[in-house]
Design a protein that fits this description.
DNA polymerase, domain 1; 19% strand; alpha+beta; Dna Ligase, domain 1; 5-stranded mixed β-sheet; MutS, DNA mismatch repair protein, domain I
């Protein structure tokens, strides 16, 4: 039996959730992301805003230039995660395997459930109906023989669309004269590299395969396969143990030159990172510090540790790395844990047996939180559950920056 794969993609997800919950926003250009007075980018935009050229990933200043009359809102990721969970409950009903690409997007393997194309059509329209009736949101659905074709199909009739591509030949016929960026993995930089050697369309890729492979190597071989509709990738459910790293980053609205403030922020980042790692059930053995300076130069420092399960370890290691880098204005700071593996069966280390060591680490964080409370007038320890949320964390850090 040939694979039957469905790709579901919510329509302007963040914006649609906000419009659903606040009908006064309906039919208005709504931009979710940073505010025009802040640094940052567009997370998503309603279709009304997209008519002005606003799109995801665009610098917020450029979005405001294009659409000054737009309504600008910060994202509420906690709310979006809850809606995403409801979506997954619907989608999982119809698939033997579900691969979530983001909160609002997934590949579903419906080969067994659908049996044939007619069955796949019924499932696709049932997903659309339940999404609309139960959650009052719209989605676009593609049905196809492969993941690449399914994603292409879901984008074909947006918003609230349905499309199917059931053979490699049908896929090629649809895209052959489109820009190379229509193919999976061909982003802006890859497209630019291909354009520089005179390759602009999928047809060009097929006619100049050797040039593509010479320019892009392994990726070029993959792209030439896609140009013929060949994609054998399976729908692979995400497993927490597959994660390689977890991190949290903060972009400041104004550059920060005070490294003592960065020290304070690392306390919160360490707590957030370890909390997130803990939810996956994984164990980390590496710590990273990421810095973006005001001139956009990025640096990353990392080191292996015996165990990165403690916020105190992540904090101490990142702080030590922070002290060793050049001290000049900082635009972004991030902390992370990498080299993740399942907790079960991990080798015990000496610190696991030393209660005093664990107690000292816990006390270090408690003391630092108490110092932050005294300095900023915020009870961090009592509100950690809120601070773990990215929107609250960003607001808290901005408050710290302004009131240092």
């Amino acid at each position: 039996m040939k694979d039957i794969i469905i790709h579901v993609d919510m329509d302007a997800f963040y914006a649609s959730v906000e419009v659903r919950d606040d009908p006064s926003l309906r039919c208005k250009p709504l931009i979710i992301g940073s505010l025009p007075t802040e640094r940052g980018v567009v997370a998503t935009a309603s279709y009304e805003a997209r008519k002005y050229g606003v799109h995801s990933g665009m610098n917020i200043k450029e979005a405001y230039r294009l659409c000054p009359q737009g309504i600008y809102r910060h994202p509420d990721f906690e709310k979006y995660r809850k809606v995403s969970h409801q979506l997954h409950e619907i989608w999982n009903t119809y698939s033997s395997a579900s691969e979530y690409i983001a909160l609002d997007e997934a590949y579903l393997d419906v080969t067994e459930q659908a049996v044939d194309l007619e069955g796949a059509r019924r499932i696709a329209h049932e997903i659309k109906r339940r999404t609309r009736e139960e959650l009052h949101l719209s989605c676009s659905v593609g049905v196809a023989y492969s993941k690449t074709a399914a994603k292409t199909a879901s984008e074909e009739k947006k918003p609230d669309g349905y499309f199917e591509i059931m053979t490699p030949e049908a896929f090629v016929d649809l895209i052959i004269d489109r820009k190379v960026s229509v193919l999976y993995t061909v982003g802006a930089k890859t497209a630019e590299r291909l354009n520089r050697i005179g390759i602009y369309t999928v047809r060009d890729i097929r006619e100049r395969q050797e040039d593509v492979i010479k320019a892009l190597g392994k990726q070029g071989r993959w792209i030439t396969q896609l140009a013929y509709g060949i994609d054998d990738r399976k729908v692979t459910p995400y497993r927490p143990e597959d994660a390689k790293s977890v991190s949290r980053e903060i972009t400041f609205q104004e550059d920060v030159s005070n490294f003592t403030l960065l020290d304070d922020i690392l306390v919160l980042l360490a707590l957030c990172v370890v909390n997130r790692v803990g939810r996956t059930g994984l164990h980390g053995k590496g710590v990273t510090l990421k810095i973006t300076y005001a001139d956009m130069k990025n640096i990353t420092r990392s080191r292996l540790v015996t165990s990165a399960d403690s916020p105190a370890v992540v904090y101490q290691e990142t702080l030590d790395m922070l002290r060793q880098i050049e001290h000049r204005p900082v635009r972004l700071i991030g902390a992370g844990v990498y080299n993740l593996s399942p907790d079960i069966g991990r080798q015990m280390v000496m610190d696991d047996y030393l209660e005093d060591t664990a107690s000292d680490r816990e006390k270090l964080i408690e003391d630092r939180l108490a110092q932050l409370k005294e300095h900023y007038g915020l009870d961090f320890a009592a509100n950690l559950d809120k601070i773990y949320r990215s929107d609250t964390l960003h607001r808290t850090v901005e408050y710290m920056r302004k009131h240092y």
